[in-house]
Amino acid sequence: MQLLKDRIRKDGKIKAGNVLKVDSFLNHQMDTDLFVEIGKEFKRRFADCEINKILTIEASGIGIACVVAQQFHVPVVFAKKTQTKNIAGDVYTSKVESYTHGRVYDIIVSKEFLGKGDKVLLIDDFLANGKALEGLAAVVEESGAELVGAGIVIEKGFQVGGDIIRSKGIRLESLAIVDSMDEETGTIVFRGDEA
Fold this sequence. Notes:
Blueprint: H1 2-11, E1 13-15, E2 19-21, H2 32-45, E3 53-57, H3 60-72, E4 76-79, E5 91-98, E6 103-110, E7 119-127, H4 131-143, E8 146-156, H5 161-167, E9 172-182, E10 187-190
Parallel strand pairs: 3-4, 3-7, 7-8, 8-9
Antiparallel strand pairs: 1-2, 5-6, 9-10
């Protein structure tokens, strides 16, 4: 998605440890006009699929998932990272290791909102080591719902996540795949760029 790649090149910041900061437009301050275009692109890419739920993980995926859900006219369910009084009773859980935060946490989805008969599209902002998507896919499997695929805004192609998810037979659509980043020069190379 060229519009997204251009925006990453313009406003993304490369930090030590292969961190790509896009918080000025994607996951802290959100450019809703860009989100609408992202939603349209996911709708185009998954137009051949029957989808009745979007599943994401708090917090950065929620805004994007809501805009994508508008395109499909379906609800968004988000996995919570902490048990709250609002989620009582039966839940699905999975352990997820966060690349960004460097810790493991449980994700929780109420059984009330996910189950047999649901056709689920996973949506998230980043794919690095694949742990968040693996955790979400495990929740879908445990629920008896059908996993239709996963839509990622930015995939770090130089990390293992994309390969892991694809090796599990999950349909993965990433709008921008970063093959390399150079902190010193600020250069970002996307998959498919001319050599």
